[in-house]
Amino acid sequence: MPIPSFAVVVCFLAWTLCLPAGEPLVFDDDALGEMFSKKLGTIAQNGDSLDIQSAVAELDATAGKRIPLPRCDGPGPITDIASLYTQCVPAVVAIGSVYKCEKCSDWHQEGFATGWIVSEEGLVMTNAHVFEGDEKEVLGVITHDGRVFPIKEVLAADKSGDAAVFRIATEGASLPCLKFADSAAPGEEVTVISHPSGRLFSLTSGKISRFHRQHTEEGESTTWMSVTADFAVGSSGGPVLNAQGEVVGMVSSTLTAYSEESADTSPASDVQMVFKDCVPLAVLRGLFEP
């Protein structure tokens, strides 16, 4: 008699989280996605998590608001890039949504963006643009060990800076969190943990390449931090970490540079480089009271 697929998911996660010491974490993206859909679907059925329409309204309502910054001791001792990964992954989440189609009664999942936990009580940071999508989609997060939490409310947002803080319902659980660095500078080694193209909990490394200011036609300006660490669709909201596992920025967007003879529709051979822009530390801290 075949084992039901959901049981397979549970068995896989139990195996993943009970690996012998020294063995790497192994993620089954399909299994985690299936678990997320099932658990968040149940939450959505009961109306216990925020939908995109409500999240967008709360982004507007909380724009410019500052909230108290809870204490976070950050990860444990970090000696190298391998220990940084194992210590920081538990504080990184995948943010996704589920919806119902007109053809069946199942809840379907769209894909994942990235976020990271700011406090043990369940405050999470991500990009403001992560909340774009179909208004009826219901939002939630999943941790590396398969726990799914509903999103309850957006607490603060900076839409031009592409940053937002929201609260998840932890049901009393104390969650691992990441803390802010004191500073960041060009040349500093950084690491990104995110979910590029659905490859959950991927690590990439690079350096901070520069800080720059962009201006709008309305005369407003926003400061960004560029890095050389790779990221892609699904990485939005991922933490950019220094060597101590402290947050120095957050993934936001990419911009591709083509050769002068090429248009944006040119083949990949005409791509010269990809700029990777991140929300800088000052904007992230700006959502919290001094």
Would you report the number of β strands?
12
Question: Number of helical segments?
Answer: 5
Radius of gyration: 19 Å
Instruction: Provide the succession of SSEs.
Output: HHHHEEEEEEEEEEEEH
The CATH level-2 architecture of the largest domain is identified as Beta Barrel
- Terminal CA distance reads 60 Å
Q: Are there runs of 5+ residues with pLDDT below 50, and where?
A: 1-18
Tell me the fraction of residues in β-strands, as a range.
25-35%
Number of domains: 2
Main CATH class of the largest domain = Mainly Beta
CATH topology (fold) name of the largest domain: Thrombin, subunit H
The CATH superfamily of the largest domain is identified as Trypsin-like serine proteases
What's the mean pLDDT score?
A: 89
- What kind of sheet is the major sheet? 6 strands, antiparallel, barrel
Shape: globular
